[in-house]
Amino acid sequence: MGRFILRRLVQAVPTIVGIMIITFALTRLSPSDPVRLMIGAAPDVTSEDYAQLRESLGLNAPLPVQFFDWTRKALVGDFGQSFYYHRPAIALIAERIPNSLQLSFLGLLVALVVGVPLGIIAAFMRGRLPDHLIRISSVLLHAVPPFFLGLVVVLFFGVQLHWVPVGSMNIVGDSCTLCWDRGWHLIAPVLVVAAAGIAIYPRYLRTEMLEVLSQEFVRTARGKGLRERTVIVAHVLRNALIPVVTLFGGILTIVLGGSVVIEQVFNWPGIGRLLFEAANAKDYPVVQASVVIGSVLLVLSYILRDITYALVDPRIKIDR
After folding, report:
1. What does the pLDDT average to over 213-222?
2. Residue 179 C-beta-side C-alpha neighbours within 13 Å
3. I need a surface site. Which of 6, 133, 200, 275 has the fewest CB within 10 A?
């Protein structure tokens, strides 16, 4: 196990370095000038002030010098100061990660709790009314864009019916983390985040379970007199989950980018919204830090996926 993880981490180094180069190049080659965006239309800013501000931000140095200086600092966790917030970029990201974790992982949990049973029901009731309803609902839900679904929830359930709040994480003046008010604000965005998984998991699991149910070893298990629950859980479901695990390949990246649109629609102060605002403001340090951290999370996600493969199917040996 240890050798496998170490080998995968070493193999990921060139990928992360390549992503760092591409991210740095794209931010620097973008047409907008971050200094111009910072000063706006202030009439009292002279050309000398403009040049001094660029110098203080390190934007006047040659691009190779900027890249190697940023890379050297990033290796020790220093991604620079935000142009807009005037705070360390890593500190801003660390503040927003808990907010995105609440939203993203609760959405994933709801998607699994709802989607997996629906897939099982559809498989065992193949060709009957519940199967048709689940498949049609999955297709329709998958066809609806997340931003549109979020807007519908805000306008109908928030503005019209007043069942859920329409934005932020708490009521004005309250900053609780674990309380009824936070849970109330989480209901709508969590359901919208979970909608994508609820649309996908039943179809995947239904297909895989139908394939496994037709296998010879399932008929053999039933012929031996095993209880139906044992056959389903120990044989059918466990084997059907192996391909489904592939869907969790980038599970950790949902912390960064999986809910960018939802955080914008519901005014949720998470890391996805921070990345969106930083990209609009050409806040290089925050954008670069977010992309690098997202790349690391993606690598860790694939390692966790491979380990999960071995846990679900003992025939898979990850040390080979």
Report:
1. 84
2. 8
3. 6
Q: Which long-range contacts (CB under 8 A, 24 or more apart) does 273-278 make?
A: 273/96, 274/92, 274/93, 274/96, 277/84, 278/82, 278/84
115 to 118, 122, 255: CA distances (angstroms): 5, 11, 20
CB neighbour list of residue 119: distance below 8 Å, 6 or more residues apart: 134, 201, 202, 203, 204, 205, 206, 209
User: Which phi and psi angles does 81 have, rounded to 5°?
Assistant: -90, 140
Closest C-alpha among 308, 310, 313 to residue 247? 308
Q: Coil, helix or strand for 271?
A: helix
In which band, very low, low, confident or very high, does the pLDDT at 177 lie, cut at 50, 70 and 90?
A: low
Beta-bridged to residue 88, according to DSSP, are 81
* Number of Cβ within a 10 Å radius of residue 259: 27
Cα 51 from Cα 182, distance rounded (Å): 45
Closest CA to 110 of 56, 189, 46: 189
- For residues 165 and 186, give the distance between their C-alpha atoms in angstroms, rounded to a whole number: 9
- What are the tens digits of pLDDT across the range 137-176? 999 998 888 889 989 998 998 888 888 887 777 665 556 6
pTM of structure: 0.79
Determine contact, residues 233/120, Cβ cutoff 8 Å.
no
> Tokens standing for 82?
């935000």
pLDDT band for position 250 (cuts 50, 70, 90): low
Among residues 307, 262, 235, 237, which one has the least CA distance to residue 108? Answer: 262
Q: Which residues pair with 81 in a beta bridge?
A: 88
